[in-house]
Amino acid sequence: MTEFEGQIWIAQDEDNVLLICTVKHLKNKIQALNTKGRELRLSEEKLLWKHPSTARHLEEWSELNPAIEATITALSSDIDIALLWESATELELSELHDLAEIYFSGKITVEHLAAVWRKLSEDRLYFKRKSRVWEARNADQVHELQLQREREQARLREQNLAKEWLDKAAKYPLPPFFEEPTQEFQLLSYPEELSGFIDKLESWLRGDDQKWSEELVTTIATSFNVAPRELVFDILQKIGRLPFDADRDVIVAGLKPEFSQVINESALAIPPWLPSETQQVTELFFSIDDEETREVDDALAIEQEGDLWKVTIGIADPESVVHRGDILDREAMRRGTTVYLPTQTVLMLPERISCDIASLGAQQIRSSIVIRVWIDARGLVVKSNICREAIRVQQRLHYKDVDVMLKQGQDETSQQLRNLLTVAENLQNQRILEGAFNLQRPEYKINLKNNVVSVELIEVNSPSRLLVAEMMILSNHIAAKYAQRHQVPIIYRTQEAPLEPITADMLADLNPINFNRIRKLLRASALSLQPAAHSGLGLSVYTQLSSPLRRFADLVMQRQLVAHVVGEELPYNQEELYKVLATAERTAREARRAENEAKKRWFMLHLKQSWSDKPLEVFIIEAVKGGYKVEMLPWGVDAFLGTSRTLTIGEKIWCMVDKIRVKAASARLKLIPKNS
User: Fold this and answer.
1) What is the rounded distance in angstroms from the CA atom of residue 630 to the CA atom of residue 512?
2) What is the DSSP letter of 286?
């Protein structure tokens, strides 16, 4: 190093001070070395006090700085900052030199000044810095800061205690899922100091924001490979805060089945919708739903007009009783969708609305969005219209009954159903010609009765379900075409063409491997303000408004479209539409995840109750560490098959249950011994 000024300074570094040795000046900057010999650059205004000593070279600086640092450290440690504060407050002093003089006797050196600064910066309770001046806080400010520090220290103590206790609680055994605890089971105790923390845990689980509790729980849950909300639910059961029959599915998902008193009172105050005295009532033949469905969104009718079929689709009109911005609308937006769990249904709108005065119940006059479509024998739409009308549904039918009627029925209703099915099949064929494809996988329904779980396979390709599905696709397509033709701002559901064509051969055998191969070829569906094709459905445009009682996004789309139909001002602009739909889509995704997780958990309990000693047929999907990922047939539920044997991917084999983790919704299977 050719240049070395060697001046020793105390320099300011924000609230701290540094001991430095200057090397050279660079315009407005100074190049210097710290006590560890590392180079730094700082402005001249950061230099506070010059030390009388100088260093002629780097080695001498290395020899000098430890002694100076030691002196500063010793002086700083001797300072009683409370005593200094009392003197500074009484004499109204704030300059560093004055503070050093009233505390130290004799000559004040650079070391004294640096020591005072360091002490003040270490403990900010009594003084606050303004530039190079340290002002004494008043007594009230000191007291408030002391209370803040005490609260923070208490919080840290609680957090450390909570972490230790949570780790212990996570390991504490709990009775198996859906089983009452034995007499030997004892509730887990917790320290009295954690009562507030336990309250926060329960509050967080029920939907309140408790940030540090959530962060702590997440850390513990990760170490035990369990979801944070699952962990808290278990812990609250272990300590008796939640009963053992508490609805895990609802609480873990953060759902609130009950509506508030204000919401219920608002719903009860709404009178049933009635048509005007001159308004005609349109008769629709029937609605078709599952037996347990209470929110009836749609109804159907069909008649022949010349060479065309005239299909009439009535969609529930909750807007007739629930208006944008009112308390029920805000609650529906918050919930986003109805959630169907094995234990209960969590409604989007109060029962009074969704299951009564807005539902298309049989023999009830209701307001409805009526979509009429004229279709030729090939399944091509010739014309259509959309109206808001009063309707009355003549009868309610269920899927299973409809399948029987389609096959064996001799009455007029059965014939109308067969006519609708013919139209539905023609519509589907036309969509397939346009590139549509049907990726149906097994579906099942969980039934609970007397603490026994049963699983019912849903006939996803049954004629009755095809009929209803095609009519709903048709109604949504007609709505999207209307919006496109009249330039009504709505949210379209779009999907670009697959990466390569999906052929009939590819769809012929939708086993898990082929299904996943096809899915990898599909582009993600999207929401768009601009009309565009939906390749998976084989349609030029598509939206969704056919389930307004159970999906808030559908209610919003229906409002927008109907406003234009009846000549009213559109309730949403494009920006509002996108904002509302984004929120609704997020809550809907969360609801679907909760439904799937709950359904799989109860399926695992069904396996445990009914298949522990029975052979299971599985499909080998892929090799994984320690065995294979398989799909249990016929339900389409994945599991792990532990084995060291080499198996053929794509083959079907028979296994037995090895271990079921109900709460984790996972199953480990084992091969059936060869001698069995």
Assistant:
1) 9
2) E
Residue 98 tokens read as 């004055």
Pair 242, 265 in one domain: no
> Residue 118: CB partners within 8 Å, gap ≥ 6?
16, 17, 72, 76
How many domains would you assign to the chain? Answer: 4
DSSP state letter for 355 = I
The upper half-sphere exposure of residue 223, i.e. CA atoms within 13 Å in the direction of its Cβ, equals: 11
Determine the 3-state secondary structure of 519 from DSSP: helix
Give the Cα separation of 324 and 291 in Å (integer): 31
pLDDT tens, residue by residue, 79-138: 999 999 999 999 988 899 999 999 997 899 999 999 999 999 998 899 999 888 999 999
Q: Give residue 277's pLDDT.
A: 86
Q: Which residues pair with 383 in a beta bridge?
A: 374
Pair 636, 442: CB distance under 8 Å: yes
Residue 3 has pLDDT above 80, yes or no: no
With b for 16 or more beta-carbon neighbours within 10 A and e for fewer, the 298-314 pattern comes to bbbbbeeeeebbbbbbb
Task: Give pLDDT tens digits for 461-479.
Answer: 899 999 999 999 999 999 9
Q: Are 641 and 630 in contact (CB under 8 A)?
A: yes
Helices within 92-227 (DSSP H only): 96-103, 110-122, 139-171, 195-205, 211-223
The angle subtended at Cα 339 by Cα 603 and Cα 639, nearest 5°, is 25
125 & 161 share domain: no
Whether residue 111 sits in one domain with residue 161 = no
Q: Are residues 224 and 315 in the same domain?
A: no
Contact 84, 132 (CB under 8 A): no
What are 263's two structure tokens?
A: 């919401």
Strands of 477-625 (E only): list them.
492-494, 526-528, 616-624
Give domain status of residue 343, yes or no.
yes
User: What would the two tokens of residue 669 be?
Assistant: 């299977």
Confidence band for 503, pLDDT divided at 50, 70 and 90: confident
| CATH label of the domain that carries residue 655 | 2.40.50.140
DSSP, residue by residue, 278-330: T--EEEEEEEEE-TT-----EEEEEEEETTEEEEEEEEE-GGGTS-TTSHHHH
DSSP per-residue letters across 193-217:
GGHHHHHHHHHHHTT---HHHHHHH
Token pair belonging to 190 = 């917790």
* Domain contains 604: no
> Would residue 605 count as lying in a domain?
no
For residue 204, give its domain range.
Answer: 144-246
pLDDT (tens digit, 9 = 90+) per residue, 407-455?
999 999 999 999 999 999 999 999 999 999 888 889 999 999 888 999 9
254 lies in some domain: no
Q: What is the helix (H) or strand (E) element at residue 482, kind and residue range?
A: helix 463-486
Q: What is the dihedral of CA 224, 226, 228, 232, to 10 degrees?
A: -80
156-172 burial, b if ≥16 CB within 10 A, otherwise e? eebeeebeebbeebbee
- Measured in degrees and rounded to the nearest 5, phi and psi for residue 590 equal -65, -40
Residues 6+ apart with CB under 8 A from 32: 9, 11, 20, 21, 22, 23, 39, 40, 41, 42
Tell how strand 627-632 and strand 616-624 pair up: antiparallel
The pLDDT assigned to 675 comes to 66
pLDDT category of residue 61 using cuts at 50, 70 and 90: very high
From 137, 164, 197, the end of a domain falls on 137
281-289 and 381-398 strand pairing: parallel
Q: Which two tokens stand for residue 379?
A: 């399944």
Residues forming beta bridges with residue 433, ordered by sequence position: none
Burial of 352-379, coded b for 16+ CB within 10 Å and e otherwise, reads bbbbbbbbbbeeebbbbbbbbbbbeeeb
- Structural tokens at position 616: 């299971």
Instruction: Give the 3-state secondary structure of residue 190.
Output: coil
